[in-house]
Amino acid sequence: MEFFDFGTIFFLVAAIVIFFQLRNVLGRRTGNERQPFDPYTSARTSEKSDSTAAENVVSLPRRKGGSEADDAYAAIDAFAKPGTDLNKSLRAIRDADPSFEPKTFVDGAKMAYEMIVMAYADGDRRTLKNLLSREVFDGFVAAIADRESRSEKIQSSFVGIDKADIVNTEMKGSEAHVTLRIVSELISATRNSAGEVIDGDPETVAEVKDVWTFARDTRSRDPNWKLVATEADD
């Protein structure tokens, strides 16, 4: 006992008392304890439970022409009267391209119209290439080159668009075509190499009427439409 002093005996007794208190509080293992939480096992168990529950549910047949279909065409019906040829052709485009909405398309076409008109006046081939089909691009570039060969320049200011209406739409295979009649206001004048005005008027706002057709392959991942045809609307 010479190795034990009072302090050692005190800590030994205290440890024994603490052990029995913990044993009473925590209890013994009986084999029925809850297993530690495993997120992966839990997820698999949850999926199995969901699958079992799903097997016990009888799905009722959906009513044809339900709200989902109505919502898909709501924007089109608000834009063009249901039953009209325009409404039917717009629906056909929507069927091929679920993201298509006529109002959104018109807003985008108006922005493209301004960009194309100004790029043509400035001779900006890069901008035109991104917005035009190959055939239309070649035509625009030829006109720009002809103008440049005579050292002529177009001085243009875009005032705005008064109207932009969809007048025709159609599906050509997987390619959607939308034709708009656009009425815009533009200040434009062509000057020769001496700076003299040879066409237009730099002080007058002129009304311009165009019929432009935009197209997009609905199977393509590219969401952009391109100008594929132009004509003046007299």
TrEMBL record:
Keywords: Membrane, Transit peptide, Transmembrane, Transmembrane helix. The chain crosses the membrane at residues 6-26. SUPFAM superfamilies: NTF2-like. It is found in: Membrane. Residues 86-232 form the Tim44-like domain. InterPro entries: NTF2-like_dom_sf (IPR032710), Tim44-like (IPR039544), Tim44-like_dom (IPR007379), UCP031890_Tim44-rel (IPR016985). Residues 31-56 are annotated as: Disordered. Its main location: membrane. Belongs to the Tim44 family. This is Tim44/TimA family putative adaptor protein. The lineage of its organism: Bacteria, Pseudomonadati, Pseudomonadota, Alphaproteobacteria, Hyphomicrobiales.
